[in-house]
Design a protein that fits this description.
Blueprint (H helix, E strand, L loop, with lengths): L6 H15 L9 H12 L1 H16 L3 H25 L6 H9 L1 H36 L10 H18 L1 H29 L17 H14 L17 H30 L4 H5 L4 H9 L1 H35 L18 H24 L10 H34 L6 H23 L10 H22 L3 H4 L8
């Protein structure tokens, strides 16, 4: 038999053909598309509405400074993601980067951690889509609709989101981008109007480090809350295969998004503090402080604020699921996860199996949470609220995602020394990742330290158990299929 028809080469050819068959639609997104999708995934209205009150209570008047610190920390992570993408753009994102650095077992473990973390975090968004709409209806006393349970609205909006995502990345990204544009316009208009109306309370106090409660300890306590405002900043990396010139456009989108979100959050925070006459205690009693300020400016502004909250949750649902489902899709395509996950729709080139699995598991988490409350005897309307689930599920998901962030920073210097020693730069590939690793350690510590209220006190243990199970599974899988290490990152986005 000639060399061209050996069994090994035939297997390689079939693998290439299979990989090509499961490719996404390449080069259909531009810089503006992925930047808008990234910021829609962050969901500034959703994140700020539900996060800033706790942040302000924890850190005091100088809450905008904590946001600046978080933005700088996220920029360290942005450097890591960008430096990886410059040399190996991949739909697998962190899974590919860590797997290519530390081998197949690390790749499989990261795939499981990433999938579980993002699914748990996205479950919180799935729930809050319906929960926030119910809150809107109840706030405006819409008879006949306000009594409908929030999970019914969740299913309705989820069906819309799934329909848009299946249609293709181009149209779903455009929809998410439009939702983001609307929410940002509202947030900016309300913030500027608040600063004008309440100009008598303008002061430099929110930018004075002395106004941080308990100094550095207060900053550290509030830091995880500020970091959570930015979750989703890495969205564009998973869209690399569908982005034109991903080696340049993904890094640009990452830093552009981080810069815009940092500046915007600082403005929103300052406007909210000023709107409450610099009274942080009063601010902390409001359900959604920003909407209270908007209503204080003009009742119609508050209505626009509610609409911005809805477009924000929907945009985050669409943009977040689009990117995060693609991470597990790529892991399935390369054999790190079950292969059925790595299939695409022949017409629209969308990873339909990954999308349905991702959202199906998110709904399962919500269902188990609800049943746990019912059978645990805690099924009061307050405990069963979408807002409670949002904070609980997003916290658990964030713990796992932060572990992945930390591993990616650890991997960057080793990857460049191993694969691109000629390109290695001590500052970009060693100093900045180490700083990123340190800054991630702060929120990770405060999310896992003992003494937290239930159920937050058992989240670190659940995460640890999941990590151990993931490692055991990865070791067993790679021992059965040693070729996994070679397949990690085998499908490069622009090749």
């Amino acid at each position: 038999m000639s060399e061209g028809f050996t069994s090994d080469s035939l297997g390689a050819k079939l693998e290439v053909v299979g990989g090509e068959h499961e490719r996404l639609r390449q080069g259909v997104l531009g810089l503006l598309d992925i930047s808008a999708a990234t910021m829609a995934n962050i969901g500034p209205a959703m994140s700020f509405y539900f996060g800033f009150g706790f942040l302000a209570i924890t850190t005091g008047l100088a809450s905008p400074l904590v946001i600046v610190a978080a933005g700088i920390a996220i920029a360290f992570l942005g450097n890591t993601l960008s430096e990886f993408t410059k040399v190996i753009p991949s739909t697998g994102g962190f899974i590919t980067f860590i797997g290519k650095t530390f081998g197949g077992q690390a790749g499989v473990t990261t795939a499981l951690l990433t999938g579980a973390g993002y699914i748990a975090a996205m479950a919180s968004v799935v729930a809050i889509v319906g929960g926030f709409f119910q809150y809107l209806l109840q706030n405006y006393n819409v008879s006949g609709l306000k009594s409908i349970p929030w999970f019914i609205w969740t299913v309705v909006f989820l069906c819309f989101a799934v329909f848009m995502m299946i249609r293709g990345i181009k149209i779903s990204t455009k929809v998410a981008g439009l939702f983001f544009a609307f929410e940002m316009a509202v947030l900016l208009i309300v913030s500027i109007a608040a600063l004008i109306k309440f100009h008598g309370h303008l002061t430099a106090g929110p930018f004075n480090p002395k106004n941080i409660h308990n100094g550095f300890k207060g900053l550290a306590l509030a830091f995880p809350l500020a970091i959570y405002l930015f979750i989703g900043w890495e969205n564009s990396a998973a869209l690399a295969e569908e982005t034109n010139n991903p080696r340049k456009n993904v890094p640009k989108a990452v830093f552009m998004s981080i810069a815009i979100m940092t500046a915007s959050y600082v403005l929103f925070a300052y406007a909210t503090v000023v709107g409450f006459s610099n009274n942080v205690d009063k601010l902390g009693t409001a359900t959604v402080p920003f909407l209270t300020v908007a209503h204080g400016v003009l009742a119609f502004m508050a209505f626009l604020g509610f609409l911005a909250g809805m477009t924000s949750t929907l945009g985050a649902l669409i943009a977040g699921t689009n990117s995060q489902a693609r991470l597990i899709f790529n892991a399935g395509r390369e054999g790190l996860l079950p292969k059925f996950i790595g299939k695409v729709d022949g017409k629209h080139r969308t990873p339909v199996n990954a999308l349905f699995l991702f959202l199906g598991l998110a709904l399962l988490i919500i269902g188990v949470w609800g049943l746990g409350h019912i059978f645990g005897g805690h099924s009061t309307s307050g405990s069963m609220s979408a807002f409670n689930f949002f904070f609980e599920s997003s916290t658990f998901g964030t713990i796992l995602v932060l572990v992945v962030y930390a591993l990616s920073n650890l991997a960057l210097p080793f990857y460049y020394q191993k694969h691109h020693p000629d390109l290695f730069n001590w500052f970009r590939h060693a100093v900045l990742p180490i700083l990123g690793l340190i800054t991630i350690g702060v929120p990770l510590y405060y999310l896992t330290k003992p003494g937290q209220p239930t159920p937050y006190d058992w989240f670190p243990w659940a995460a640890l158990v999941f990590l151990v199970v993931a490692i055991v599974y990865a070791v067993a899988l790679v021992s059965r299929d040693p070729g996994i290490g070679d397949r990690v990152g085998s499908i490069v986005a622009d090749e």
